[in-house]
Amino acid sequence: MNLESLLALVVSSTLVYSAPLILAALGGVYSENSGIVNIGLEGIMTVGAFTSIIFNLTFASSLGIWTPWLGALVGAIFGLVFSLLHAFATINLHADHIISGTVLNLLAPPLGVFLIKAIYEKGQTANITANFGYANIPGLADIPVLGKIFFANTSAPAWLAIILTIAMWFILYKTRLGLRLRSAGENPQAADTLGVNVYKMRYLGVLTSGFMAGLGGAVFAQSISGNFSISTIVGQGFMALAAVIFGKWNPIGAMLSSLFFGFAQSLSIIGAQLPGLSKIPTVYMQIAPYVITIIVLVLFLGKSVAPAADGVNYIKAK
Amino acid sequence: MNKQKNIIEMKHIVKDFDGFKANDDLNLTLHQGEILALLGENGAGKSTLMSILSGLLAPTSGEIKVNGRQIAIVNPTVAKQLGIGMVHQHFMLAHSFTVLENIILGHETTKGPLLDLKQAREKVLALSEHYHLAIDPNQKVANITVAQQQRVEILKVLYRGADILIFDEPTAVLTPPEIKEFMHILKNLANEGKSIILITHKLEEIKKVADRVTIIRAGKDVGSYAVKDISNEKMAELMVGHPVTMKLAKAAVEPGKAILAVKDLVVKENRGTLAVKHLSFNVHAGEILGIAGIDGNGQDELVEAITGLRHSSSGEILIKDQDLANQAPRKITEAGVANIPADRQKYGLILQMSVADNLILQSYYQTPFSHHGIINFHQIKQHAQKLVKKFDILTPSIDLAGGELSGGNQQKVIIARELQRNSDLIIAFQPTRGLDVGAIETIHKQLLKEREQGKAILLVSYELSEIMALSDRILVLHNGEKSGVVKPEETTETELGLLMTGVKKEGKVVD
């Protein structure tokens, strides 16, 4: 294998594994910047995964190549609806964010398996036929060398995620909406006295995280696992959460961290094909992403600073 | 300017909270371009009245006229439209935002969907120049001083076009030089035609800047006076309802042996730079040693080192001849140290716990409160009832959460707990911070009584008047070093002020 195709393999597999993490992490960034901790990303990803798989299996024959994209949209919408639970519990009922997020995480997998069983009468779905697969980005793929490494035979959802990252960074830091959203997470009392609707901003933050994590789960299911079972989403949501923290609650930072975690995950898959790594027993490669996540969190958790009122309920005086 | 034009008239305001009348027939008139002081003890109803004016609370009865027009201020937006702006005591700022972002939040200038920071910056800088409120709009709020944060708060209100400014205890968080600066700002604002209500219980400040004073006591109107026609003593008396001795009677006490001896102490602050630099001093039995200095000159680190909350790098802390440097706080406490911390809500009390429980925080593990690890609640209750009576703590019940008491009563709980243990050394850090004249008097008398009983007292305070009134000797700290030790009867506030900024008696600069 020459260097160019080696790099192309590493880059494309990194992108494939990063895409779901980037999407979910972007959601986490919005939620936490509005002041609501969302450890329910994992559960929301699960909802996105099984709803998109059901959609995909049902409509693949009639929708053709657009099936995974529409499936992703369906997963995102169900993710958003599912996150309403978290928004209502934390914003209106002032519940503890961790407890409410845990509820989402405990609720989603059995709900998914139950529905799958009710519909297909077995514990896991069949494999989908219409998945995201690998795509060439029109125009860019023809660039010599770089085109082949980055844009040919690559993951289209990953590039969508990267474009969304830039858009969401822009909204968060350059627009009035972004300033108000962040003010709800920094000092809700101050925001309220200045006429910012804190509850509205926080709903916006949580629902965005629901949409994005649902999208992330759907992308994972339709590009990596190819079906839905109890073990489809196992830790990706927590990795996205780690990426939020590692990325200092900034969309760009969260994307870069997600790429790093995605790279770690992809190594366990393509390691066998890489010179030097192929001799390492696969079990070590498989646990690597989790170990790296833990190490990164331990090293950086203390150093990065969350929005000041992240996780603090805001109770408006009557 | 016609100073007699009434810009605000509040008449017969009553606010009833389930039978408790926080405001009982209060009247307030604010003239155009004047500074009106609103004076009253904690809990007298000042904040309630101002909340009514700024639309946060609805009055039970009474009428409000703004610019001669009767109006119901049903929510804060209406107040804003009327040009009423409030500068809160606890600043409402997002610390990770820039000064500019904090000022424009909720009132942003935009270009399409984008924030137009350039236009906003020009507007803010123009205001800042006009009112002499120096700020750097691009700084993060986390990186600026408290005084600068206050300017940001004022600019926030001005940016929204307020003509009537309400300041809630604005100088509580400022150092003496900052207070001086702030007084200039207030006068400036009034000269520019802004009408100002200044909520305070500091009489000297009223004398310095206010034109008139409205005094309320226990929710009732005690009257409004021209400041030049009323003495400090009279204001204090009207506020608390009985004559207040402004001058404390200090009995002559012969100091005994040194209870606390600090020798060559070095303490670092969190970032590792030296906060206390080779400091030595003694506090004797029957003596109050006052530590004067501007906030942030090593006072926090010094007290934390003595009480065992912070590691000291070198030096000795002898308490009754026993070196207790870097020992556990409990060991230091048990050696005979009472600690009245500066932040009563953070370090003095556990706000969620009851008054009774707060009163035994230093002794819950000892008899009679506990036997073999089992708590005796009966004893705790009796103990609490005794102290509530003895220290005159105003609480409906000993089971009430500490956080629900007023500031003055919270402080009484801490003082009761600490003095009850009969320690030989009392460390009092800002013991009267934010309290009203009546409560201050009580606490000062208690400290003097302890002194007469032969206790050694280390008093750290940013209030020069407090230091001057109580201390037998005053040690002035500047930049972690001793810039002078003086006796109150041989010094002036001006000299202390100079020492606090590092200028020595001979006119030499310390660092």
UniProtKB/TrEMBL annotation, chain A:
InterPro entries: ABC_BtuC-like (IPR037294), ABC_transp_permease (IPR001851). Pfam families: BPD_transp_2 (PF02653). It is a multi-pass membrane protein. One of its GO terms (cellular component) is plasma membrane. GO terms for molecular function: transmembrane transporter activity. The chain crosses the membrane at residues 34-57, 69-91, 97-120, 132-150, 156-173, 203-222, 228-247, 259-277, 283-301. It is found in: Cell membrane. Keywords: Cell membrane, Membrane, Transmembrane, Transmembrane helix. Its main location: membrane. This is ABC transporter permease.
From TrEMBL, chain B:
CDD domains: ABC_Carb_Monos_I (cd03216), ABC_Carb_Monos_II (cd03215). GO terms for molecular function: ATP binding; ATP hydrolysis activity. It is found in: Cell membrane. It comes from the Bacteria. This is ABC transporter ATP-binding protein. Pfam families: ABC_tran (PF00005). GO terms for cellular component: plasma membrane. Signal peptide: none annotated. SMART domains: AAA. InterPro entries: AAA+_ATPase, ABC_carbohydrate_import_ATPase, ABC_transporter-like_ATP-bd, ABC_transporter-like_CS, P-loop_NTPase. Gene3D superfamilies: P-loop containing nucleotide triphosphate hydrolases. It is a peripheral membrane protein. It comes from Lactobacillus xujianguonis. PROSITE patterns: ABC_TRANSPORTER_1, ABC_TRANSPORTER_2. Residues 8-243, 260-504 form the ABC transporter domain. Keywords: ATP-binding, Cell membrane, Membrane, Nucleotide-binding, Repeat, Translocase, Transport.
